[in-house]
């Protein structure tokens, strides 16, 4: 049982993460790779990334047993929500945090020899670990990240609406099928007995694409209070060709591709033209149409225009 203790200040400071947390999705997707939970929802994705995953997951797997504790420092919760920020936070993990988390992990199983350098905070070992995370994300998550973000955004928009119209307490009562809310305590099913006292810090609610079954949080209650919980899924979400055929029919091949590359990461008109292999006037025209439809936003930066996808655009990509 997980019990989260609120004060009135905590209710006022509770927020919903603005997007998926890349470091959490890395960790939780590894569990989906190594287990059979999620069945048909993740099977196609497992098959598509299995070979690449075998080459990139070893250091990560050493720090996250197939069930049970995974070191807290692997999943820094950040407001900027970018992989680059997460990797930088991992490289800068204080030695005290490394030693404390590895000591807990060592109490559950024998650790490989390379973790000695990690416990000592050696920069080269931390860099090796961060590089492994980046390779794994690039190979196994990046090809699907637009759809991951879009699906999480759909859930987030619904939950923001609940919080706005019905209040934070109503959302807490619905955040997971096992949730039981009786002020001032939120109870959720959990593998072990765990108490989390917010003490005025508020709670970051983080809907997660690769979380499955029970919610999860940090072992250390001193870290930023975060509740990561699963969202609903659709069969076939990872099927590339099938997912984008309706979108192409709706928008046209070029415009759909422009929306997709902007969804992958923001870019200037020149960058969008390069990534879509179109001319600069074509990229500009397609971006203008997408902006008029509310699917992207554009802002002037010096002599360039930077295009970013909107929540509506992400939701459209996620649905295909």
Automatic annotation (TrEMBL):
<protein>
    <recommendedName>
        <fullName>HTH arsR-type domain-containing protein</fullName>
    </recommendedName>
</protein>
<dbReference type="InterPro" id="IPR051011">
    <property type="entry name" value="Metal_resp_trans_reg"/>
</dbReference>
<dbReference type="GO" id="GO:0003700">
    <property type="term" value="F:DNA-binding transcription factor activity"/>
</dbReference>
<keyword id="KW-0804">Transcription</keyword>
<dbReference type="InterPro" id="IPR036390">
    <property type="entry name" value="WH_DNA-bd_sf"/>
</dbReference>
<feature type="domain" description="HTH arsR-type">
    <location>
        <begin position="235"/>
        <end position="320"/>
    </location>
</feature>
<keyword id="KW-0238">DNA-binding</keyword>
<keyword id="KW-0805">Transcription regulation</keyword>
<dbReference type="InterPro" id="IPR011991">
    <property type="entry name" value="ArsR-like_HTH"/>
</dbReference>
<dbReference type="InterPro" id="IPR036388">
    <property type="entry name" value="WH-like_DNA-bd_sf"/>
</dbReference>
<dbReference type="GO" id="GO:0003677">
    <property type="term" value="F:DNA binding"/>
</dbReference>
<dbReference type="InterPro" id="IPR001845">
    <property type="entry name" value="HTH_ArsR_DNA-bd_dom"/>
</dbReference>
């Amino acid at each position: 049982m997980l019990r989260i203790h609120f004060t009135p200040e905590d209710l006022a400071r509770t927020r919903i993460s603005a997007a998926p947390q890349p470091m959490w999705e890395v960790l939780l997707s590894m569990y989906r790779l190594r287990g059979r939970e999620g069945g048909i929802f993740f099977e196609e994705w497992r098959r598509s990334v299995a070979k690449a995953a075998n080459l990139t997951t070893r250091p990560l797997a050493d720090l996250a047993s197939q069930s049970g504790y995974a070191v807290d420092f692997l999943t820094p919760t950040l407001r900027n929500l970018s992989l680059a920020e997460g990797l930088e936070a991992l490289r800068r993990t204080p030695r005290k945090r490394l030693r404390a988390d590895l000591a807990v992990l060592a109490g559950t199983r024998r650790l490989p020899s390379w973790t000695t350098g990690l416990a000592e905070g050696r920069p080269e070992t931390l860099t090796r670990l961060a590089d492994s995370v980046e390779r794994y994300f690039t190979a196994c998550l990046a090809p699907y990240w637009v759809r991951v973000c879009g699906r999480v955004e759909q859930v987030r928009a619904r939950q923001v609406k609940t919080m706005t119209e019905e209040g934070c307490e109503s959302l807490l009562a619905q955040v997971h099928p096992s949730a039981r809310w009786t002020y001032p305590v939120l109870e959720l099913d959990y593998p072990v007995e765990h108490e989390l006292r917010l003490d005025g810090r508020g709670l970051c609610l983080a809907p997660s694409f690769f979380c499955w079954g029970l919610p999860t949080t940090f072992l250390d209650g001193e870290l930023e209070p975060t509740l990561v919980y699963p969202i609903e899924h659709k069969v076939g979400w990872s099927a590339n060709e099938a997912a984008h055929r309706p979108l192409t029919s709706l928008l046209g091949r070029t415009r759909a591709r422009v929306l997709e590359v902007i969804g992958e990461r923001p870019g200037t008109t020149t960058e969008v033209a390069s990534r879509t292999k179109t001319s600069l006037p074509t990229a500009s025209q397609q971006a203008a149409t997408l902006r008029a439809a509310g699917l992207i936003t554009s802002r002037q930066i010096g002599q360039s225009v930077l295009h970013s996808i909107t929540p509506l655009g992400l939701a459209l990509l996620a649905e295909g």
